[in-house]
Amino acid sequence: MAVSVNLAKKLDKAYEDKELKDILDAPVDALAGLTPRHTEALKDLLGIKTVRDLGSNKYFATAGVLVALEGHEG
Q1: What is the DSSP string of 9-54?
Q2: What is the mean pLDDT of residues 13-28?
Q3: Given a cut of 80, is residue 63 above it in pLDDT?
Q4: How many whole angstroms separate alpha carbon 2 and alpha carbon 16?
Q5: pLDDT tens, 44-59?
Q6: pTM of the model
Q7: Rounded-to-10 torsion of CA 68, 66, 43, 15
Q8: Does residue 46 contact residue 54 with C-beta atoms inside 8 Å?
């Protein structure tokens, strides 16, 4: 089954037409709303250099799971 996702509003204009691998290998500021300053801060503080690093970081991954679980408490 083929899956299509439109991420245009979630990415910087320069990355809207890129392949997934290129987006994952891009600096964090490829995500809409983040700047090179954010990229530098994440690199300096947590060693996060790319979108892939951000998405696979154990702290961000854990926080994402906790937020997703919040709606299923009970």
Answers
A1: GGB-GGGTTS-HHHHHTSBGGGBTT--HHHHHHHHHHH---BHHHH
A2: 95
A3: yes
A4: 19
A5: 999 999 999 999 999 9
A6: 0.84
A7: 0
A8: no
